[in-house]
Structure formats: C-alpha cells, structure tokens
C-alpha cells in the first residue's frame, strides 16, 4: 500500500469510517497480493515449459534458485484464473415452482454453485452468489461473472449465446446444441427414444454485450449436464486453462450420470474446444 494511502486513511477523524475504509483497502491489497502471487507462479511455469532451467530463470530475474523453486510450488495455482480473479460473482436463475408459482432455486443449481464455490476457494478466490429473477433480467457487463443459465429462462442469456460463432441452441421438439462447423447435433439422452443416461452441456467464455470483457457461462440441456460441467472443472481445469487460458471459447460437454441420483459419473468434451480468438 503506498504510504500516501496509509496517511490518507490514518487522517480520517471518524473512527467508524476509518475502520470501514481501512478494511476495504486491506481486502483490496490482499486480493492484489493473491493475484500477483498467481502471476509470478504462472510466469515461472511458462518459462520453464519453454526450456529454461530454474537456475537460468533465477539469474535473469535477479533471484536465487531456491526462491524460484519456492514461488513455483507455493501460492495459488495459475489455472484458478480460468474462473476469474479476486471475487467472482456466480449467478443462477430463479424458476417458477409448479405448485404455488413461488420463485425457487433448482436443487441442482444449489449443488452446482456450492461445488463451484469450493473449487474457487481452493484457488484463493472469493465468490458471491446471486439469483437471476423470474424473467431472466441480468446485468452481464460486470467483471469476474459466471452464469449458470440457459436461453430458455433469460432473454439476455439467449442473446449472449447467439454471439457464439460456432455453437448454437436449437429448440425443436426438445432443446439441442448444434455445432455449425461439423453439423453435429447434441440431444439429451432423456429426450431420445430409447432414453439413455447422457446429457449435454454448453461451456464457454463469451464477450460481454458492452465488449469490455468476458462472461464464463455454462448450462446443461437438463440439470445433470450442469453438474457434469462442474465435475469437469474440478478434474480438468488445468487442462482447460492450458488450452484457452482466459480467452473466449466454447465447447460441448458430454455427461454420463447415475439415473437414481442425477450425479455425474463421467464428464468429457463431446465437441472440439473452439477458440473464438481465431474467428
């Protein structure tokens, strides 16, 4: 924290305001430390992957080889930035309860949100939860936003999905995902005859409507698909980060699930992982 910041805060006469401002600034400083630690570890990993030894990196950076090793193996893992930085906002939709028309949160969305929050905290990321109201109105022009919602429940999300240059949602007798590049259509097993315990989900990072950043979005055709995406992130986030980092992309995830519990048994990419940077 710059000395002039400390002096400015220390000069606040109201003790309650001083306490509030000092706490806010300290939280911001702690986030900066976390992200700088993540950045250092990322740079060392990248340089080492390019063939440089830790001794060479240490010499060029003016640090000891032991310090480079320490940085390389401590602090938050770089792949956590796949989710965002600092404090993430996770939005899930409210749905109309069939019996008395009350707005409720689907149990699967609660479960997915809790598991994603646990994953984020493992990378020293904070997470705040919010609900998309009935009608689907949501402000997508915010940093570090993750949305679990399909086009059916939110026109704003429907418009966002339409910006994808490769994958599209199609509503016929049932919702499907279509790959415009290959012509492949992905229809949930529960919507086929005979039925099967396979669902498909969309996972992507799309441009915000204002063009000043990106939004990480995912949703299954059915709730089992959303849980499957979280499972994929839990097990393969380092691989995904290595392929697309924090750039725009989209892919289809295939999820095999237990029909008795709806819990994912196996989650894997069903389509290519499309980079939008090349579009």
Q: What integer is the average pLDDT?
A: 89
Topology order in helix (H) and strand (E) letters: HHHHEEHEEHEEEEEHEEE
Helix and strand content put the structural class at alpha+beta
What is Rg? 22 Å
Sum up the overall morphology in one term.
globular
Which sheet architecture does the biggest sheet show?
9 strands, mixed
Query: What is the count of structural domains?
Result: 2
Unreliable stretches: none
What fraction, in percent, of the residue positions are helical?
A: 25-40%
The quaternary state of the protein chains shown equals single chain
Would you count the extended β strands for me? 12
Q: Tell me the strand percentage band.
A: 25-35%
State the separation between the terminal residues, measured CA to CA: 41 Å
Number of helices: 7
Question: How would you describe what is shown here?
Answer:
The protein is of the alpha+beta class and 279 residues long. It has two domains: 3-75; 81-278, no CATH class. The protein has seven helices and twelve strands. The chain has helices at 3-10, 15-49, 54-61, 65-73, 107-122, 155-162, 223-244; strands at 87-96, 103-105, 126-132, 145-148, 167-171, 175-179, 185-187, 198-207, 214-220, 249-257, 264-269, 274-275. The strands form two sheets. Strands 1, 2, 3, 4, 8, 9, 10, 11 and 12 form a nine-stranded mixed β-sheet that branches. A three-stranded antiparallel β-sheet has the order 5-6-7, with no helix packed on it. Strand 5 (167-171) and strand 6 form a beta hairpin. The longest helix is centred in the first third of the chain and has 35 residues, at 15-49. The mean pLDDT is 89.
């Amino acid at each position: 924290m710059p000395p002039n910041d400390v002096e400015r805060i220390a000069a606040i006469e109201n003790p309650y305001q001083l306490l509030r401002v000092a706490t806010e600034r300290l939280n911001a400083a702690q986030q900066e430390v976390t992200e700088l630690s993540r950045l250092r570890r990322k740079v060392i990993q990248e340089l080492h992957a390019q063939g440089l030894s830790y001794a060479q990196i240490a010499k060029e950076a003016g640090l000891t080889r032991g310090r480079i090793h320490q940085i390389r193996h401590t602090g938050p893992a770089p792949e956590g930035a796949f989710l965002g930085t600092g404090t993430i906002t996770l939005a899930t939709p409210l749905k109309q309860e069939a019996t008395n028309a009350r707005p409720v949160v689907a149990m699967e969305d609660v479960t997915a949100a809790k598991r994603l929050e646990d994953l984020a905290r493992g990378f020293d990321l904070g997470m705040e939860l919010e609900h998309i109201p009935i009608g689907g109105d949501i402000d997508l022009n915010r940093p570090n936003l993750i949305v679990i919602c399909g086009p059916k429940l939110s026109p704003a999300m429907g418009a966002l999905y339409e910006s994808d240059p490769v994958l599209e949602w199609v509503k016929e007798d049932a919702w499907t995902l279509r790959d415009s590049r290959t012509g492949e259509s992905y229809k949930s097993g529960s919507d086929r005859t005979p039925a099967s315990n396979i669902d498909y989900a969309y996972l992507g990072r799309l441009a915000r409507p204002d063009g000043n950043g990106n939004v990480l979005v995912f949703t299954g055709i059915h709730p089992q698909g959303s849980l499957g995406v979280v499972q994929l992130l839990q097990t393969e986030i380092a691989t995904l980060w290595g392929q697309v980092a924090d750039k725009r992309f989209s892919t289809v995830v295939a999820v095999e699930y237990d029909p008795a519990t709806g819990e994912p048994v196996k989650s894997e990419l069903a389509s290519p992982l499309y980079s939008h940077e090349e579009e």
